[in-house]
Design a protein that fits this description.
256 residues; six-stranded mixed β-sheet; globular; single chain; four-stranded antiparallel β-sheet; alpha/beta; Rossmann fold
Length: 256
């Protein structure tokens, strides 16, 4: 299969749903290597559902998801595990193990998927924590951290195996504006310094305009992508009423 090296993820004609409920139908898009790509849209449009399909948690009704040219939908066994080891995921809650220290949380993927000796695993885990601004917090428990610090720790764990792609589900959820802005700057720093490709689900406009290279917008009514491009361009030039409302925080009088 011939692939475009600039496109690290390619989604072709993807349809997803549960039972009789179709979430989205025949959507297609690509994510370029090294960019910060955001999936947005209103509640119930399928943002998190799309992300879960992209990381192999759910199997679609139809379509393919190519990660570095390999279809995660069709891959099984060792082939699928090899794809999964090339990506990192931060869930909305952070999903840190409360009974483990931060260092132990970050070491977990290294213990599971590498043959590094313990000293090396500890060194790598400490380095990942330092990269997200949590150097010196190795012995802390998740419950001892603020919400923003827990999100940083979760990103550190997602980076444990040096993935090329990081998937973040609502990283700013539950954070105050200052902490959210700090997290945005961390994402930009990691993108610039390490060349990591980010795929992020969010509806936070401030974050979208700060970090996004490109976005796609899902629509619950049409079950499709109704906008794709740079957020500033979409805000200023879109002809779609729903896209304009989203980016300009507008509400129709009949919706009040």
């Amino acid at each position: 299969m011939q692939t475009d090296p600039e496109k690290i993820i390619v989604v072709n004609n993807l349809s997803a749903g549960y039972d009789e409920n179709l979430i989205f139908e025949r959507i297609s898009f690509a994510v370029k290597s090294g960019e910060v790509f955001i999936i947005l849209g209103g509640s119930g449009c399928g943002k998190s559902t799309l992300l879960k399909h992209m990381i192999g948690l759910f199997k679609p009704l139809a379509g393919e998801i190519l990660i570095e040219g390999r279809d995660i939908v069709q891959a099984e066994g060792r082939a699928k595990l090899d794809i999964l080891n090339r990506i990192g995921v931060m869930y909305q809650s952070g999903a840190l193990f409360g009974s483990m220290t931060l260092l132990e949380n970050i070491m977990l993927p290294l213990e599971e998927f590498t043959r590094l000796p313990e000293a090396a695993r500890r060194s790598v885990a400490a380095l990942k924590l330092a990269m997200v601004g949590l150097g010196g917090f190795e012995a802390h428990m998740p419950s001892e951290l603020s919400g923003g610090m827990q999100k940083r720790a979760a990103i550190a764990r997602a980076m444990a195996l040096d993935p090329k792609i990081l998937f973040l589900d609502e990283p700013s959820a539950g954070l105050d504006p200052v902490t959210s802005a700090e997290l945005d700057q961390l994402i930009l720093k990691l993108s610039k310094n390490l060349g990591i490709t980010f795929v992020i689900v969010t509806h936070e406009l401030d974050s979208i305009f700060t970090i996004a290279d490109r976005v796609i917008m899902l629509d619950k009514k049409t079950k499709s992508i109704i906008a794709e491009g740079k957020p500033e361009d979409l805000k200023q030039h879109t002809q779609n009423e729903n896209v304009r409302k989203f980016f300009n925080r507008q509400v129709s009088k009949d919706e009040l």
